[in-house]
Amino acid sequence: MLSTILSLAACGGDDGQQLTSSNGGGGNSGLPVGGGNGNGNSTGYQAGVFKDASLFEAKCAEPRSGTDPATGQSFPDAQGTALDEKMWLRSWTNDLYYWYNEVVDTNPGTYSPQEYFDQFLKTTKTTASGAAKDRFHFIDDSQHWYELSTKGQSAGYGLTWSFVSSTPPRQIVVAYIEPNSGSFTSPAAAQNVTRGMQVTEVDGTSINGDDQASVDKLNAGLFPENAGETHTFKFLLPNGTTASRTLTTVNVTSTPVQNVKAIPSGSRLVGYMLFNDHIATAESQLVSAINQLDAQNVNELVLDIRYNGGGYLDLASELAYMIGGSGTAGKTFEKLQFNDKHKTTDPVTGQPLDPIDFHSTAQGLTVTRGQPLPTLNLSRVYVLTGPDTCSASESIMNSLIGADIEVIQIGSTTCGKPYGFYPFDNCGTTYFSIQFRGINAKGAGEYTDGFSPANTVGTKGVTVPGCSIADDFTKDLGDPAEARLAAALDYMANGQCVSAPSGSSTAQSVQMKAGLPRPLSAVDGVTVKPAFLQNRIMRQ
Fold this sequence. Notes:
The chain has helices at residues 82-96, 113-120, 142-151, 187-190, 212-222, 282-295, 313-324, 392-402, 483-494, 505-513; strands spanning 59-60, 78-79, 138-141, 153-156, 159-165, 171-177, 198-202, 205-206, 230-236, 242-248, 250-253, 257-265, 268-275, 300-304, 311-312, 332-337, 356-357, 380-385, 406-411, 419-420, 424-426, 429-432, 436-439, 451-453, 462-464, 466-468, 526-527, 536-537. By secondary structure, it is of the alpha/beta class. Among the domains are: 153-157 and 171-253, Roll (Pdz3 Domain); 257-423 and 438-502, 2-enoyl-CoA Hydratase, Chain A, domain 1. Helix 1 (82-96) runs parallel beside helix 2, helix 6 packs parallel to helix 7 (313-324) and helix 7 runs parallel beside helix 8. It is globular, with a radius of gyration of 23 Å. The chain starts with 58 loop residues before the first strand and ends with a strand.
């Protein structure tokens, strides 16, 4: 599925976004949608009447054949119509959607199932700040979802972009590089692409091209759909020179846990780890990282989740336990709250809505289920955050706060998503619709404006002790001189922020209006990842 970049939206929403021209044009929009297909009439629709979703489930306009890789069983698809698919979506939403009573019941008409879901099966309400209440509604091709969520694989260059500005004057920076691992060789690493390099051209087109043809060409190069594509980029290097790099896409294997190390700092030995995605392969990597830091006898931990938009909630629970250990014993990690139709029972699993404990054993994603997890047994953790810190990552913070493990936040306000869902496949499309809210042991879960370091200037979310520091693309992640990590080490030594908040939105706005690039030593961007990596996902 194509990941593209629109004018930057709040964390969570569509599967990627698109570059747009100043006149509002866009490029490709992700999964193909369209108008009617001959089956999209309104037969069977009656306003306000919702038949059981099971009557329409797996009745497909184009049934699949063969074996479902996720279950190992034959696909359940039977011949049906596009209307069957839309009627399933409508009834499923009315039963499970968290804000089902805010959905305006709309005739499916001639919309495609994807159009109907995207446009009509979510709340139209806004938050107090005027933002869309549901910024997290999305779809994915089921095969793509399976490959990325279980194997961490998708076509790409082995790098992640950060969009400081997605409209002219655009500023697009390399946030991090996937390292070589096993049989995977990162195209970006092989061509010496590094963090902090800024894109100025894509396939000969200026990054500030503002006509539709230019925008489409930029999107095609920045977000290739298939392995084997070759695109040429011109970069502005941190030293002020320029360089061209020709990159060919491969099926990238993500390494979600990186740069695990112990950093001497005064009398302390500080553990550091970069955790980028809550995907299945992270389970074994997190266990290895904690074992390594424990063997090195670290007595503090800096958890860098500035680019971690979420994923599997089980991993958040495991990592929170591996940080807090005995301090989490007998305490609630999170409790799920569904809509008012399902107050006592999880409507997906049928299990009672009992509190979820901190997982002290592996949940079987890539580590043998039931294997005891290691722990650092810390009473405090420093988290490095940014606008991409979302959902399952915020759950780590919220759950530890609820268990009285001290959380010190260094960075920028997080995205604000206390909600989650179970993914549902129907007819080859996996649908993600908000179904529950998570609260911690103290009943706290209203952080829809995110978590903010206490000295944040301007709009704040739920405040947490710590320091407001913008991202620093001039240093490598894990470098003690990188602004956020340096601020965390300073806070350990002094118990307070040693400098004023950096990267204020006011200063950045002035620069942008003047047509000047924002300084890469103190600026926040938004990374572009598949939408499921910006969420809190339960496994069935």
